[in-house]
Amino acid sequence: MKKIYKYLTAFMIITIMLVSIPTGKVLIDGYRRYKEVTNHVSLQDKVKKIQNSDNYVSIENIDEDFLTGIVSVEDHRFYKHKGLDFIGIGRAAINNIKEGRIVQGGSTITQQLAKNIYLNGNRNFSRKVTELFLAKDIEKLFSKDEILEIYVNIINYGNGYMGIKEASKGYFNVNANNLSFEEASILAGLPQCPEGYNPKKHYERSIKRQKQVIAAVDKYGEKNLLNQDYLLAVGYDLYSA
Q1: The model scores a pTM over 0.85
Q2: Which residue from 56, 72, 87 is spatially nearest to 192, judged by alpha carbons?
Q3: pLDDT in tens, 153-182
Q4: Contact indicator for 85, 228 with CB cutoff of 8 Å
Q5: Angle between the 109-118 and 64-74 helix axes, to the nearest 10 degrees?
Q6: Cα 143 vs. chain centroid, distance in angstroms?
């Protein structure tokens, strides 16, 4: 398994080489940035500060439908990979090679967490390298449930709401563990494009995205969590999603 991981990591580096010149500078800059940000404030200290926030919610107090939805639609191999999803990376790499620039990230939840904790939104290859090193550290230090818990507590849900507590209260006036299936599946779709899917401003778009979440849960998640009464009420057909 370790050999496979090394080979796939090598493939990732080769992909960067194909689309970035000079490659050495990209890798060095990415690693230097990784050391710089973690030496300035350690990952453990960053996470501790996040967890001490008044708006932080532990995973046992977050609705299960929401958690299943966000994993299914954002990173359905989350509990199987070690921080990098090489299938997703390969797919993104092909598209990036075609375009000659980063147009698709193939980022896992772990990588997205790394970006949200330390990095800005600029898409460049050295930042992706930094992200990979950070993701590796995150997977070493925290369990999968801890990573997911931290992730849903710091991401943007649009309309000025940061974290699942603010989003649950702001959009639906409920606690994160009292979301209905409808509410949970809407919130799970927001991180991909928080303002674009904001249900207060773009309701129809948010419902379209919600259907993508439901379809992902049907394909990858726990089917027993799907609320059939709600699906029937809105005339939603899983098989035509």
Answers
A1: no
A2: 72
A3: 999 999 999 999 999 999 999 999 999 999
A4: no
A5: 100
A6: 16
